Amino acid sequence: MDWTAIWKNTMDFVNQEFLSNKCFEWILLFLTIFIFMLAGKILSVFFEKQARHFRCKKHFTTLAILFESMSKPIMLFSFGFGLKIGDAFIWMAQDVDLIYKRSVLFLLAISVIWFFFRLVDVLEHMMLKVSHKAGSLLDVQLIPIIRKSMRIFVVIVGALYVTSKVFGGDIGTILAGMGIGGLAFALAAIDMLANFFGSITILFDKPFRPGDHIRIGNYEGTVDEIGFRSTRVRMLDGHYVSIPNQNMTNDAVENISIRPYIRRDFTVGIEYSSSPAQLSRAIGIIEEMLKSRQKDFPENKPGKVYFMSLASASLEIGVTYWYTPAQWFDYLSFSSDFNMELFERFCKEGISFAFPTQTLYLRKDSANDVVAGKSEGCKDA
Fold it and tell me: Within this chain, do residues 102 and 236 fall inside the same structural domain, yes or no?
């Protein structure tokens, strides 16, 4: 193998010119870009590994989020920085060089904006920690809005910087145009502003908070998030509904989560053929059942039972109780147990539940017979 010839051919190749630059200069450019991209990938993997490591530790969650914030933007930053360093190895025409430098600056600016955009998660976590220590519910509700506001601020500042430094725009002219455009936008977006102020009203008036079970109009579900424009509610059937905050402040909202108890009103109908003694016994059975369950009722609201009315097809006994704590499925279980015991004890006592009936009198009956007619229950009495 002739090493001298190989060396000569190699030197001839690297000294050849391509687009006004020697080949070895292009090789240095691409080698520099490759090295910085490799370094960026290594740093990205390192940051992700550190983030997973600190996630497992109780008091290092903030550091974990910080490393996660840097893991992705660092790759784009390394690529842009490699292009910037590699620029020193090649010559370009003035117009091409200007486009190249602006493209590199654009990549670096985007990577920095991306980093600060993700850095908001770190600030959010720190604010949540402070709020939980202080026990301030208002701060916890405001933090999602603060997070969104900070991200919007980062994007706007970044966009202005890119417009000014990369594209050579005049920030003063842009801001002046934004002032006029902002007035026109405000006039055209009255509903949006109403929704925004509605969100502020909700946060300070606190009719509900995330996690509460509410009912508004035809919607009922759990509050998932209170945003700038709308409140997001997870319906009982699993559907996700966004309700404008303007409606949330103008319409009546029932906060079911903060009710101290669940009230139940129902009637028990027994047959007209029942005797007064059976009617009294039926009321007594229900009273006994309510007394045996006093621990499930508020102290100032014991259960009530009363002979309510002489209905068209039954003797109606009214029952009211207030179940606490106000947990829906526990309430259903309690009511099911109550109904089952009531049914069993009525059957044991020979008390019959009424069902809709109708008594017909034939025309051959005299009016006096109809007036003088008595129920079997009255005869038994």
Answer: no
